[in-house]
Specification:
The chain has five helices and eleven strands. The protein is of the alpha+beta class. The chain has a six-stranded mixed β-sheet with strand order 1-2-3-6-7-8, covered by helices on one side. It is flat and about 65 Å long. It starts with a strand and ends in a 9-residue tail after the last strand.
Length: 252
């Protein structure tokens, strides 16, 4: 038994948005797949995503959101179907049969089902003005079917519809990297003058590199670094926020 619905919930005013030139709507896709008997849950997919309109670049932004939120499958239905097929294949390969010691026959066997897989995703607008919109896409799952679940931080040009690279947004790469490194060290109580590598941060240099994973916020620019990949044994924060007043002359 499948349960599926797609709902356009409401027009969304995002946190930190001002002078909005975009109409933003929140949508929810949810689907559950069951076994042939309709009683045992195999997989569940829930994606809360945004769609944009009223700007030249809205459709291009929507295409990018759909790509990342639905893991490249294009639609929720295709993602849910593919995940269920993967679950059934894994169940067939990994089914465990053991002897039931309490049964009358010592040769009777019992099959154990895997736990259901889930995939949840949320897309949040964190900032928008007449030129840009910034979103954060977050994923959670217990399934090996989903290989990459790190959050994506994205900023778009709302007229062109393309994702803005850091090199297009900031004037002086070296100066911005210096700021990011300074704030990163302070925020994480690291030692100044000691190389980041010696402090367990997987960097090829002692400067935090500029990343395209950034968003604007109401207070400044937030750069995102996946610490679980860069420094899995550290307890460093993923985000580095640079206040707007320190970025005067740096924003293009």
């Amino acid at each position: 038994m499948n349960k599926f619905y797609l709902v356009i919930c409401f027009t969304l005013l995002c946190v930190g948005c001002s002078d909005m030139a975009l109409k933003i709507e929140k949508n929810v896709f949810q689907d559950e797949k069951y076994d042939a008997s309709g009683t045992s849950l195999n997989t569940s997919v829930q994606v809360e995503y945004l769609t944009f309109s009223d700007s030249k670049g809205a459709q291009a932004i929507n295409d990018t959101v759909i790509k990342y939120a639905f893991l490249g499958y294009g639609t929720g239905e295709k993602l849910s179907d593919a995940m269920n097929v993967a679950w059934e294949n894994a169940q067939s390969e990994d089914t465990v049969c053991v002897h039931d010691e309490d049964a009358v026959s010592s040769e009777s066997e019992e099959t154990y089902l895997m736990s259901p897989w889930y995939y949840n995703c949320t897309v949040e607008c964190v900032y928008s003005n007449s030129k840009h919109v910034s979103i954060v896409i977050k994923h959670s799952t217990n399934s090996p079917f989903v290989t990459a679940v790190s959050p994506q931080y994205m900023t778009f040009d709302i007229q062109a519809g393309h994702r803005i690279k850091a090199s297009d947004a900031f004037a002086d790469k070296n100066e911005i990297e210096s700021m990011i490194t300074e704030f990163f060290i302070k925020e994480n109580n690291l030692q100044e003058g000691v190389s980041l590598t010696e402090q367990g941060i997987g960097m090829t240099s002692d400067v935090i590199p500029l990343t395209d994973d950034f968003v604007f916020s109401s207070e400044g620019v937030v750069f995102h670094y996946p610490m679980m990949q860069m420094a899995p044994l550290s307890q460093c924060k993923d985000d580095v926020k640079i206040p707007f007043d320190l970025l005067e002359g740096q924003l293009k």
